[in-house]
Amino acid sequence: MFVTPAFAQETAPAANETLLEHAETGGNFPPFDPTHFPSQILWLAITFGLFYLFLQKVVLPRVGGILEVRRDRIAQDLDQAALMKSEADAAVAAYEQELAEAKAKANAIGQEARDNAKADAESERKKIEADLERKLGEAEARIAGIKSAAMKEVGGIAEETTAAIVQELVGAKVDKADVAAAVKAAQE
To answer: Phi, psi (5° rounding) for residue 29?
Structure first.
């Protein structure tokens, strides 16, 4: 069970009696009673003034400070973002320049390699051509030697064949000097 303090027990019946008197007399509710308006307006003005001073001296400076701090932080963040953007743009430009230089260097290295390979191939081709020319000269010399040897033998074979044919046809032996002279005359 709830026990009420002694003060509440003493004042509660008095307040109840006052309300009962107003209800019985047909009085208005005190805040709506025109006799109480001047005091209500006075307390309203005092309360409004104190509330206005409280807002002006305590709340608004804090809100203004918070807004200023936020504005400064936003401006600082925007400046930092602009700085980072310019750094990023500079980094991209440096990267693109290095990439272009690397491509140019790679092209130069490739061209140098092609030129070196071409020069090596040309020198190798010249060596092979010189070797082929030498071998061709040797082969032509051998062919000429074989041809001259064959031609020398052709003359001897022709003399022998001529002597054999004449001997078969005539039945007599022919002089070798006469046969050699006739073969030489035919060859020229």
So the answer is: -65, 130
Asked if pLDDT for residue 58 goes beyond 90, the answer is yes
Do residues 176 and 163 lie in contact, with contact meaning Cβ atoms separated by under 8 Å? yes
Residue 22 in contact with residue 35, Cβ under 8 Å?
no
CA gap 61, 74 in Å, rounded: 19
Tokens 């200023």 sit on residue: 68
Q: How far is CA 162 from CA 39, 57, 165, 182, in A?
A: 173, 151, 5, 9
Mean per-residue pLDDT, 158-175 = 79
**Between 92 and 153, the higher pLDDT residue:** 92
Binned at pLDDT 50, 70 and 90, residue 1 comes out as: very low
The b/e string for 129-163 (b: 16+ C-beta within 10 A; e otherwise) is eeeeeeeeeeeeeeeeeeeeeeeeeeeeebbeebb
pLDDT of residue 121: 93
Helix ranges restricted to H, the chain:
6-25, 37-54, 60-170, 176-187
Residue 142 has pLDDT above 80, yes or no: yes
For the chain, the first-to-last Cα distance in angstroms comes to 165
